[in-house]
Amino acid sequence: MDWAKSGRIRIPRFQRSYRWEYTDAEKLFDSILRGYPIGNLLMWRKPAPAAEIDLGELRITAPAVSDALSVVDGQQRLTTLIGALTASEETVDRRFRIFYDLRDKKFLSTPHSQKPRDHWLPVWVAGDNRRLIAWQRVRSWLTPEDYDLCDEVTTAIRTYEIPMYEIEGDDEQALREIFDRMNTFGKRLNRAEIFQALHAGPLDVQPSGLDALRERVSGLDFGDFTTQILMQSVMAVRGGKVDRDFRHEFDNDADRQHAFAVTEKALRVVVDFLREDAGIPHLRLLPYALFVPVLTRYAALFGRPEGRGAELLRRWIWRGSAMGAAPQGNTVALRRNATAIKGDPVLSAQRLLKMLPPGGEQWTPDLSQTALNRAQAKLNMLGLLSLHPVLLTDYWDEDGNRHAPGTRIDQPRLLTGLLAGKTSPLAPILSGWEKGMANRIVHPPMDKQVDVLSLLATQGSEALHSHCFDENERVSYGSDGTGSLLMRADVVRKVIADHVQSMALWGFSDGPDPESWFGETTFDLDDFFVPDDLSGGNNAA
């Protein structure tokens, strides 16, 4: 605690964020009370500059120190200990609101909204003798057994010893190697997290790594890219097997920085292509995540998709969304699709199309799918958006801007805010009537008191059409509206099917641009086949 308060303990940038649950914190203090081992700490001792430090509930302006201890292994445990021991009644994070129940004789946590019981001993009180005495003094009902339990808990916390190893020196690569081995053997981090740990920038500067890349592309207002997608995009840009071992991926810092710079530029191209050419306005509506790293490789090699290449890529996205772009499983499909991007932009797009499952001409929308974690539900919503639905009521966005009835919901700022929210952008029309997309419109949440059917009945023909209603059916809304929604199902199905077909173009030739037939073209036969051997090295292209 003294080290933390003096600013000596630092969390390096390669560490992942604090992810423990409150149950983990309860178990940690239970282990301390029982004398169980909680693992070793590995620290790197080196000078550190002045910095603003957050450790759990502890927030300090730390001075420059010559012997700072950067946490290599043990961040989750240290953050929990420091957070709980520096907490207070005002602490909101439940993971640090840890108490010892003198009645049930166990550690527990509680949300800020719940008032602690009088017989719950706060951990932050147990860690300070004067606060403990004051806490006991106002509880005259405490029994000798209660006092003994308080002593047992406080003594366990104050005297518990944690083995700690210190590394000295400036060999950052050796530190990363140690970190890699510790977190590979135990499998405690996922691939994207280990990638970030090994290939972040120098510890004392802003890294050219996944976190920085994620922050920069978040400014595109296309949604939040996961570190997994970003890692796969970096690997795809560099070529070879996207799921290969990445521990020695970069030759040096310059190589790493170049890779992330190229990936960022390519991702900006991909977002623009998805919006403008493929008709995907937001990452949340992209049916399969693997489209991003594959398109990123395409953009890095050939620039922005244009002409015939862009047309075929759009078909690939929509056909793959409808029929399943990853029939072999995401990892295998990603590897095969990324490896197909080589040589020529049009031929690369053709190879992608050839890998899709057949039978798209018979595809029909599944109107039962309304949850946007499913590819078919995303296609359904994209189909509804193709009619440019409008607001039926006033809507105030998070910035306090008012959007009047009749405003198109697919306006970028409005739609992005709607998709970024926690609630579904598919609002039910008739409550208690679950008939899938027939009972859904694209619209911000409305007050529960609003009768959506009655509201629709007051709309003009353009607004009705934008939500898949026929003005001629206005009289059939009736008392419960189920008849209208059953008829609307046929309209919705046709709208979605027509939109998907217009983008996927099943039945059309996927060959080269007909205009190219009149010029001289030289083909490499290898370009027409996807090799069975998909091997590739670090910098294979």
Describe what you observe in this structure.
The protein has helices spanning 2-5, 22-34, 75-85, 123-126, 129-137, 144-159, 172-185, 191-199, 210-218, 227-238, 253-276, 291-302, 307-323, 330-339, 345-354, 375-385, 412-420, 452-457, 461-466, 482-504, and strands spanning 9-10, 41-48, 51-55, 58-62, 65-73, 98-101, 106-109, 120-122, 164-168, 395-396, 402-403, 426-428, 440-442. It is of the alpha+beta class and 541 residues long. The protein has a four-stranded mixed sheet. Strands 7-6-8 form a three-stranded antiparallel sheet. Strand 3 (51-55) and strand 4 form a beta hairpin. Helix 8 packs across helix 10 (227-238).
Short description:
This protein is an alpha+beta fold and 541 residues long.
Give start-end ranges of low-pLDDT stretches: 202-207, 520-541
Helix content range: 40-55%
Instruction: Tell me, briefly, the overall form.
Output: globular
Distance between the termini: 51 Å
Arithmetic mean pLDDT: 84
The DSSP helix count reads 20
Provide the structure class: alpha+beta
What order do the strands of the largest sheet run in, or round the barrel if closed?
Answer: 1-5-2-9
Main pleated sheet:
4 strands, mixed
- β-strand number: 13
Radius of gyration from the alpha-carbon trace, in angstroms: 29 Å
Sheet-strand content, in percent, reads 5-15%
